[in-house]
Amino acid sequence: MDAQFDRVREILRGAASVAVLTGAGVSAESGIATFRDPDGLWAKFSPRELASMDGFLANPERVREWYAYRKTVATTAQPNAGHYALAALEQQTNGSFCLITQNVDRLHQRAGSRNVLEVHGNLIENRCNDCEAIRTDDVLVCPLCSGAMRPNVVWFGEELPQDVFAAAEQAAMTCDVMIVAGTSAEVYPAAGLPYTTKRYGGVVVEVNPNPTALSSEAHYLLTGTSAQILPHLVGDVP
Ligand code: APR
Fold first, then answer.
1. Among 20, 155, 183, 209, which one is least packed by beta carbons within 10 Å?
2. Over the stretch 111-128, which tens digit does the pLDDT of each residue have?
């Protein structure tokens, strides 16, 4: 693996543009459950009931409670060495750097990452189902239009925030290298971004303890957890 680390570090040092795509695995070492691991959220809860508009309309109180629970978990968790390594990588990258995350826990921002694209929203904000007003308090009814307030998280079957995803696609097309860390690479359109990078001639580096749907397409596979692997890609960590 050392030769792979050296090569990836060399590619990162020479890159004019770096993109990163993260998934729930990057927050696992902060104590936040992933979705599809054996002990993940979808093994315990129903995505249809809790992460869909139908589920919200059927039982808004249950959905709001579940997201309030996830918000408490996220706000009491601490960023881990993987989050801090990505913030350091952004600092050391001379060219452009973009961190695209499917995570809604805001741990990247708390670790110091600045150019973060949250393609699946975040747990901190609520959004009006009608006028799309954003609020960080917990009112249930939009004061502007009386619409129902819901978590500002993208649910199954919903469109991603178009401006955010357009920026993510642009980063995927123009980057010299994309690090893909902690994602099963199963949920589109976010899972399509590494393929875009490869199609436009960029190098794809996967960081994951397990094989994924992307593994056969990645140029480099760094097998291990993000808190173990990512610090070795930054600076001159031996
Ligand atoms: N470090 C790195 N990767 C890890 C770690 C770790 N410590 N622990 C687990 N993983 C990997 C798993 O091997 C798996 O490939 O993280 C990945 C987690 O996959 P998912 O649980 O499917 O999470 P994610 O890919 O982020 O899901 C994408 O699906 O449910 C929706 O909106 C939700 O954003 C989410 C999207």
1. 209
2. 999 999 999 999 999 999
Token output for 68: 């309030």
CB atoms within 10 A of CB 60: 15
Residue extents of the structural domains in the chain: 3-234
pLDDT digit string, tens, across residues 167-189: 999 999 999 999 999 999 999 99
pLDDT tens readout for residues 189-203 = 999 999 999 999 999
Annotation: CATH topology of 3-234: Rossmann fold (3.40.50)
Distances in whole angstroms, Cα of residue 223 to Cα of each of 178, 181, 184: 16, 10, 13
Torsion of CA 12, 29, 193, 212, to 10 degrees: 100
Which of the residues are catalytic? 120
In contact, 219 and 206? CB cutoff 8 Å: no
